[in-house]
């Protein structure tokens, strides 16, 4: 499920960091509850497609509590590096990694997706699940993602979209505007964290527009795949 979104204001990145640190302990529960478990299938699809490239060094940007990094461990790469700006989210991710005995493969560290502490062409694949909507500067974050990839390698981005097909469009609109914020506030105990989803989905560049931004950010090729009737898109960019 998506990470909640903060609108662009001065200090937005700090607001995002504080918010995720606040809701970290309930984040996984809400993800699976609010998506009715469908989010696991979206991650599985990403990992399956990424596995075609047999990547050995994988970067998971905006890793949160490391769900996607853990899912990618089945590919048995040399290592997976997960980055996030929220320390509490990373702490929970580390607990999960340690419990599963994946500490030798998965390394988590605090880092800004728009200013990554890695050399050029360091990774065979990059991925992010429901994190790019929270970038303060989307083109910069995508450019950084492209920079750290080896030539010919691919980036895989899961992000919510606006379904257009009747009745999915109407059902999703009602759910995201009314049901999701209510349950989110109830479970997270945070007054606003899950009220931003419909706003952020509406504001986020969709499909071909996002593909254009990927091209301008350095990707030579980019495509998208609609998942679950267009509720979520999987964007794939080749450096």
Index terms:
239 residues, alpha/beta, Rossmann fold, seven-stranded mixed beta sheet, 8 helices, 44% helix
Describe the model.
- With 239 residues, the protein is an alpha/beta fold.
- The protein has one domain: 3-Layer(aba) Sandwich (Rossmann fold).
- It contains eight helices and seven strands, in the order ααβαβαββαβαααββ.
- A hairpin with a 4-residue loop joins β6 and β7.
- The two termini are 27 Å apart.
Q: What number of structural domains do the residues give?
A: 1
Radius of gyration: 17 Å
Structural class label:
alpha/beta
Strand-and-helix sequence, N→C?
HHEHEHEEHEHHHEE
Report the uncertain regions.
Answer: 1-10
User: Which CATH class applies here?
Assistant: Alpha Beta
Largest sheet: 7 strands, mixed
Helix content: 40-55%
Q: Count the helices. How many?
A: 8
**Any idea of the CATH topology?**
Rossmann fold
Q: Quick check: average pLDDT?
A: 85
What fraction of residues sit in β-strands?
Answer: 15-25%
Shape: globular
CATH architecture: 3-Layer(aba) Sandwich
What kind of assembly state do the chains in view correspond to? single chain
Q: Can you list the strand order of the major beta sheet? A: 3-2-1-4-5-7-6
How many beta-strand elements? 7
State the fourth-level CATH superfamily.
Vaccinia Virus protein VP39
Separation of termini?
A: 27 Å
């Amino acid at each position: 499920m998506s990470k909640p979104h903060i609108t662009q204001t001065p200090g937005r990145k700090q607001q995002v960091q504080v918010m995720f640190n606040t809701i970290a302990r309930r984040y996984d529960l809400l993800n699976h509850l609010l998506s009715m478990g469908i989010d696991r299938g979206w991650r599985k699809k990403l990992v399956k497609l990424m596995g075609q490239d047999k990547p050995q060094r994988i970067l998971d940007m905006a890793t949160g509590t490391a769900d996607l990094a853990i899912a990618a461990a089945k590919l048995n790469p040399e290592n997976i590096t997960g980055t996030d700006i929220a320390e509490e989210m990373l702490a929970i991710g580390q607990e999960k990694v340690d419990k599963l005995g994946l500490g030798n493969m998965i390394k988590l560290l605090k880092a800004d997706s728009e200013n990554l502490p890695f050399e050029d062409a360091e990774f065979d694949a990059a991925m992010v699940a429901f994190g790019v909507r929270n970038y303060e500067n989307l083109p910069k974050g995508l450019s950084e993602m492209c920079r750290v990839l080896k030539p010919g390698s691919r980036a895989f981005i899961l992000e919510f979209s606006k379904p257009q097909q009747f009745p999915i469009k109407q059902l999703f609109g009602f759910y995201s505007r009314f049901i999701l914020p209510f349950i989110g506030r109830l479970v997270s105990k945070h007054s606003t964290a899950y009220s931003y989803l419909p706003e952020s989905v509406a504001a986020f560049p969709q499909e071909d527009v996002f593909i254009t931004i990927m091209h301008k950010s350095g990707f030579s090729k980019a495509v998208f795949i609609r998942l679950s009737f267009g509720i979520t898109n999987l964007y794939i960019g080749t450096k």
